[in-house]
UniProtKB/TrEMBL annotation:
Superkingdom in the source lineage: Bacteria
Classification via Pfam families: Peptidase_S8 (PF00082)
Coiled coil (UniProt feature): none
UniProt source species: Halobacillus campisalis
CDD domains the record matches: Peptidases_S8_Subtilisin_subset
InterPro entries in alphabetical order: Peptidase_S8/S53_dom (IPR000209), Peptidase_S8/S53_dom_sf (IPR036852), Peptidase_S8_His-AS (IPR022398), Peptidase_S8_Ser-AS (IPR023828), Peptidase_S8_subtilisin-like (IPR050131), Peptidase_S8_subtilisin-rel (IPR015500), Subtilisin_Carlsberg-like (IPR034202)
Residues covered by the Peptidase S8/S53 domain: 40-289
Cellular compartments annotated: Secreted
Protein name, per record: S8 family peptidase
Length: 338
């Protein structure tokens, strides 16, 4: 079986230290719902990628477990460190939690991370590694009975492999949303389709990329399976050696949505007083999007905007406010002449 690769990405800048909430996290309005969502606490999010820098100060308290399915580190299953950088960046966007004077916050800074290394140092991996990684995420159980709430995959290839589809389908059938990057083979023309798998499967949540001007990134794949878009250009997040970096790609848009699922789950399940199914959680997610005016093949349901429902509610409250009406006699001016 052939190999699968990271969705191509660009390293824009590597930074020694940072102390901020990244612009991408703010753009999707995550901090505005942190209080109601408990910052994603109680949710385990699986990152299927190149591993993670386990000692990064903003991530080490968030990693609950991990597994290596690659041949890196002599195939040691317990060594899921990141010798590439991509997986650490993705993990930080999902759940980095600033631990000191320097650091950043991810979308869901109280969520836990299950790190599943399926790609080697060069960013490629056997399809079987990815398939095994997905099954591991589905079957995993934490020390207190925790189960995976969502899976994040910023990887892909041009080939639709049946076993990969079956693994993805199994996860979704078990109630686990699978969030995938759309891919970076876009030609800046929404009328032409570009597909990468597993992102191209109808069952997954496929994420395209925009820049901070709310423009579709020219590299972002377009097709009729795009579900929504998120920031994916010059995205600041954690990196190897305890550093930070700005990267660009649909790989960087995807973890914004994965982290958002933890926040949305906590809010919606509190309201419904029960656990939501995968389709219900998806519905709650896309309710929190705003159209940008691009074709559906480019933006799907639109830009993720987590606080939009609260903003609508405040607007309706304003319209429904009962004002003191003026006295009837003040409403009319008599036409009689004296």
């Amino acid at each position: 079986m052939s190999r699968i690769r990271l969705i191509p990405f660009e390293v824009e800048e590597i930074i020694e230290a940072r102390n901020e909430t990244p612009e991408g996290v703010r753009m999707i309005q995550a901090p505005e719902i942190w209080e109601d969502s408990e910052k994603g606490k109680g949710n385990v999010l699986a990152v299927i990628d190149t591993g993670c820098h386990r000692d990064h100060p903003d991530l080490k308290e968030r990693i609950i477990d991990g597994r290596n399915f690659t041949s890196d580190f002599n195939g040691e299953a317990d060594n899921y460190d990141d010798n590439n950088g991509h997986g650490t960046h993705v993990a930080g966007t999902i759940a980095a939690c600033c631990a000191g004077e320097n650091g950043i916050f991810g979308v869901a800074p109280e969520a836990d991370l299950l790190i599943i290394k399926v790609l080697s140092e060069d960013g490629s991996g056997d399809y079987q590694w990815i398939i095994d990684g997905i099954h591991h995420a589905v079957d995993w159980e934490g020390p207190d009975g925790e189960k995976v709430r969502a899976i994040s995959m910023s990887l892909g290839g041009p080939t639709d492999v049946p076993e990969l589809y079956e693994a993805v389908k199994r996860a979704i059938d078990q109630g686990i949303p699978v969030v995938c990057a759309a891919g970076n083979e876009g030609d800046n023309r929404p009328e032409t389709d570009e597909f990468a798998y597993p992102g191209g499967y109808n069952e997954v949540i496929q994420v395209g990329a925009i820049n901070f001007n709310k423009e579709i990134a020219p590299f972002s794949n377009t097709n009729d399976e795009i579900d929504l878009v998120a920031p994916g250009v010059n995205i600041l997040s954690t990196y190897t050696e305890g550093k930070y970096a700005k990267l660009s790609g649909t790989s960087m848009a995807t973890p914004h949505v994965t982290g958002a699922l933890a926040l949305v789950a906590n809010i919606a399940e509190k309201q419904f007083d029960r656990k939501l199914t995968e389709s219900e959680l998806y519905a709650q997610l896309v309710r929190r999007t705003i159209p940008l005016g691009y074709p559906k093949s480019a933006e799907g349901n639109g830009l993720l905007a987590l606080a939009i429902l609260d903003q609508f509610e405040k607007l309706f409250q304003t319209f429904n406010t009962t004002f003191n009406r003026p006295a009837k006699e003040d409403l009319f001016v008599s036409s009689k002449k004296s």
